[in-house]
Amino acid sequence: MNAVPNSTDWAAVRADFPVLTREVHGKPLIYFDSANTGQKPEAVIAAVDDFYRRHNANVSRAVHALGSEATELYESARSKLARFLNVRGDELVLCSGTTFAINLVAYSWALPRLKAGDAIVLTRMEHHANIVPWQLVAQRTGAVIKVAEIDERGQLDLDQLYSLLTPEVKLLALTHVSNVLGTVNPVREICREARKRGIVTLIDGSQAAPHRPLDIAAIGCDFYAITGHKMSGPTGTGALWARREHLDAMPPFIGGGEMIKEVRFEGTVFADGPRRFEAGTPNIAGFAGLGAAVDYLSALGMANIEAREQALLSRFTDALKQVPGLRIFGEAADKAAVVSFLIEGAHAHDLATLLDLEGVAIRSGHHCAHPLMQHFGVPATCRASLAYYNTFEEIDAFVTALTKVRKLLA
Ligand code: PLP
Predict the structure, then answer these.
(1) Measured in angstroms, how far is the CA atom of residue 63 from the centroid of ligand 1?
(2) Could you tell me the pTM of the whole model?
(3) Whose CA is nearest to atom 14 of ligand 1?
(4) Using one digit for the tens of pLDDT, what is the confidence trace for 341-357?
(5) Which of 256, 261, 128 has the alpha carbon at shortest distance from 204?
(6) Is the pLDDT of residue 193 over 50?
(7) Is 368 part of the annotated catalytic residue set?
(8) Structural contact between residues 385 and 337, judged by C-beta atoms closer than 8 angstroms
(9) Which of 313, 319, 317, 315 minimizes the C-alpha distance to 336?
(10) Which domains does the chain have, with CATH numbers?
(11) CA gap 201, 5 in Å, rounded
């Protein structure tokens, strides 16, 4: 697909995704699980294929042509991502995804700094990837974790959040967009408040980067983590953006090749900047694919994608509200196209299993957000999450399937 005009032909965009043409249990696939992982367009699949067919070599270590091409593909993914996020490439650590990115901050920034008496503030709506690393840090340092709560619509209670930002707090780590509720947090305002109080901020951008224009420089955070597989890119790719002052002050987290200037048995001089955190052979083919994914999303335009997904969300929410006994979890004023729900009398897993037989892929479970489930007093919810390649017809077919399945379970 080439440059996309303003009046995007969404049917043509959808046709770029080979998997969306398949059938499941004899029914056309309705893939409503993009918050889990996004589907990949032909351009991304082709970039990975092309890497192995034509360019396969390791990065940085070889002077031969293939080695230079592989290095060029890997580095161009960094510069494309940097442009996409509006940050400097020399502040962007390429890694396997958000989980690694947050652990890198936990082990390399927090662990050497935090001590007993310090505090870390998280929110009720965090993914386990933005909870467990901080618990490990807290256990080792004696720091404590405090939690910002949500209101009945699934929005952060900002007054309560700001009341937690006391002088002991060294880090505020929160998600940009909730993977369960769809809530879009006002991260710019929150980071401004944290900064006023000298508190370092980390934003988990896993569910934001695929769905809306991002300007990390404008957000004003200290760390921002993304994961490539939710951005129409390959699994095992992602990045951590960190302010250069932090990167320069952080010791390496994992040691090995690629991250050094010189190694002697007496000691090692580490590479500067992001490379100090990129030990070992990276997922080069994956980053070739992520570069293609960034090109693809950029050609579509993130504002365009956001508008499309908001239109889908609006139709989807209206339709779900007509289903008797259906409860939606999360109705924030600013919300991404993620809808968690339950139907009275039906277990989430039963609903998802029966929907699968109708060709519909949604997620059921705790969505790696146990504390949020505890808040709502439920063990699990169903979660339908949409992306720009979904259609209004799929929404109608989904509601028909849900109505049928609901009757079976009633
Ligand atoms: N944070 C959020 C909000 C997520 O939705 C996810 C994935 O579901 C993650 C973190 C973890 O991402 P990954 O497993 O790609 O590292």
Answers:
(1) 36
(2) 0.97
(3) 99
(4) 999 999 999 999 999 99
(5) 128
(6) yes
(7) yes
(8) yes
(9) 313
(10) 10-40+301-409 (3.90.1150.10), 45-298 (3.40.640.10)
(11) 37
